[in-house]
Write a structure and sequence with these properties.
This protein is mainly beta. It has two helices and twelve strands, in the order ββββββαββββββα. 6% of the residues lie in helices and 55% in strands.
Length: 165
Amino acid sequence: MSYPRTIRNFNAFVDGISYFGKVSEGKLPDLKIKTAAHRGAGMDGELAIDMGMEGLQATLTFDEWDPAVIKKLGKRERFVLRPASMGEDDFLADSWVFTCGGRVTTNEFDALKPGDAAKLKATLEVDFFRAEMNGEELFKIDIENGIRVIGGEDQLASMRSAMGL
């Protein structure tokens, strides 16, 4: 029987600086295609037409109120999350690299309670998102440049060409 290779741990980087041991949670953007419903004459139901990507958002939850992170509000930054996955049959870890670029739009401070840790959640409105596993690019989304590469296929190449880009 083969067991799933599960994410066991991760590290987070902000603007190239490691926050090893200082980030307790990272949330990657959900990839979702925005669709429009279409039902033409003779069709027995609606179908979804690809209208581009929905907005992308990433968050990091820091276990301290780091002034360097707080000062990034409003700035364009890069969050990199590097989880590692491993199966039960060996000790070989898979390397994942998720690179998110965009603007830091929120610094959310936890409530202050005696005896409880107060965390800081930073939110990034993502306009660039790339995923790699063991050195292989799985996808690259570049909103500003109209690029959507999934599994090595640039789904928007002919669209850019038709627009003269």
